[in-house]
Amino acid sequence: MIGVTVAAERLGPRLGGLIAATPQLSVLALLFFTLEQGREFAAETAFWTIPGMCATIPVYLAYLAVAGRVHEPRLLSIVLGALAGFIAFAAAIGIIGLLPLTRVTAVPFAALVCFVAARLVRRLPDTAPLARVRTSAGLLLARAAVSAAMVIGITSVAQILGPKWSGLVAGFPVNSLPVMAILHFHYGSRTIEPMVKLWPQGAFGICLFNVAAWLTLVRLGLAGSLVVSYAVDVAYLLTLNWTWLRGRPRL
Q: In this structure, are residues 78 and 181 in contact, taking their beta carbons and an 8 Å threshold?
């Protein structure tokens, strides 16, 4: 989470959002579930994280909607935005969990949701200017504490729910939501718009990561599966960034 925030501050919200779209909680979930529950359980949770990633999109949209309406005081805007995000995630997970998704329909469902969401936010800006704040040990520690608390909370709850609901809950944007809140706090709500615009496309990359993990974890083991899954996601994100760069108007 610290790395993503620093990347956004140094490289801009869009590239920071691109880095935030790499698997984070999905990796921790695979690690913990494989070690504690076995490969089969972990592979099943990876499958259910595919539709679970779709529930992250309402988190971003809800946060942005609140931030757009409640500008000041900024801290209240962040708290209400985060609360709206949590509620949106819970509601989305509840709805997705009731859908009759199968091995055949889960990936097309995720692709459709991400595509529609990307169209909805296409008019948001691609980047936003910001003046990087001075960092300190206390600031970095606070950022790390927020992320660690969310990781522990989500993984602890997920482990008692079984593979389906564990996978759905593991889709929660445990690092990118704090990053968005931190950028909002330091630079204002406009800086989170590029992250919201990018997220549906980035979320599908995490879906592809979990597709690869689901298909390879039992056969290749944890280390081999992570290598393959990360390779799939990184190739997708590089292609996404290359496509965006080609589409930019030349000066």
A: yes
